[in-house]
Design brief:
Helix 3 links the parallel strand 3 and strand 4. With 250 residues, this protein is α/β, with parallel strands linked by helices. Helix 1 packs parallel to helix 2 and helix 7 packs across helix 8. The termini are close together. The chain has one domain: Aldolase class I (TIM Barrel), CATH 3.20.20.70. The chain is globular. An 8-stranded parallel β-sheet has the order 7-6-5-4-3-2-1-8. Bound molecules: 1,3-dihydroxyacetonephosphate (13P). 1,3-dihydroxyacetonephosphate binds next to strand 8.
């Protein structure tokens, strides 16, 4: 594990503005003395309000997506410049819900990754296999392809601003967590892919988060593994007390 851990809450399409502000206040209070790195990613409409709450604290503001384009006729899209203007530092890209519900390709995700990095945002790139891919013995191949294509033409220097999140799709929101050993195996494999793409130094320094039913009961065991460097947490991040337990794992 790389330390401090990077503990991130992906709030997905949950919380109205007032609820998001309240949760952000609770998270800020809960982690203010924490030793790890923290991020919350509310929905677009709640970013500005949550930004005011986390400003000047040890909680980073993240967004859940951004457009492939910088500006113009793209109805319904949100640009990196807009995100930056409300205090976003980091954008989550390639989440499995974006890939599988909204049809985002590796090429689109790579375009977003490069655009975000070029505009000074940090990136959390999500990768992970479907259940049928795991059962067919293709988990590593899928993760390798998503990693290579997602990071195509990203420089070794810019990798300092990239975190990978391994989120096996079958473990997301299902209560089925990958066992610490299964997760560790993929994390180590992905680190090997990073090594072949960017060299030892980048591979050693890059954070790889685990996501998929991580919660207050299983986080410590997952985070104890040598290649698991943090968590990208959905459901358990919506309850400040649960997020707080994960946030304080050391
Ligand atoms: P859950 O923690 O709800 O399984 O969600 C994980 C996730 O998709 C975080 O991005």
């Amino acid at each position: 594990m790389r330390k401090p851990y990077f503990i991130a809450g992906n709030w997905k399409m949950n919380k109205t503005k007032d609820e998001a502000v309240e949760l952000a206040r609770q998270v800020v209070e809960a982690v203010k003395d924490g030793k790890n790195r923290y991020l919350v990613a509310p929905s677009f409409t709640n970013l500005d309000a949550v930004s005011s709450v986390v400003k000047g604290t040890n909680v980073i503001l993240g967004a859940q997506n951004c457009s492939t384009e910088e500006a113009g006729a793209h109805t319904g899209e949100v640009s990196v410049g807009m995100l930056k203007s409300v205090g976003v530092q980091t954008v989550i890209l390639g989440h499995s819900e974006r890939r599988h519900i909204y049809g985002e390709s590796d090429e689109m995700i790579n375009k977003k990754v490069r655009l975000a990095l070029a505009n000074g945002l940090d990136v959390i790139l999500c990768i992970g296999e479907l259940l049928e891919e795991r059962e067919a013995g293709k988990a590593e191949a899928v993760c390798e392809e998503q990693t290579r294509k997602g990071l195509k033409d990203v420089s070794a220097q810019d990798m300092a601003r990239v975190t990978i999140a391994y989120e096996p799709v079958w473990a997301i929101g299902t209560g089925k967590t990958a066992t610490p050993d299964d997760a560790q195996a993929i994390h180590a494999f992905v680190r090997g892919v990073l090594k072949s793409m960017f060299g030892d130094d980048v591979a050693e320094k890059t954070y790889i988060q685990y996501g998929g039913s991580m919660n207050d009961g299983n986080a410590a065991d997952l985070l104890a593994k040598p290649d698991i460097d943090g968590g990208l947490i959905g459901g358990a991040a919506l309850v400040a007390e649960k997020f707080s337990v994960i946030a304080h794992v050391e």
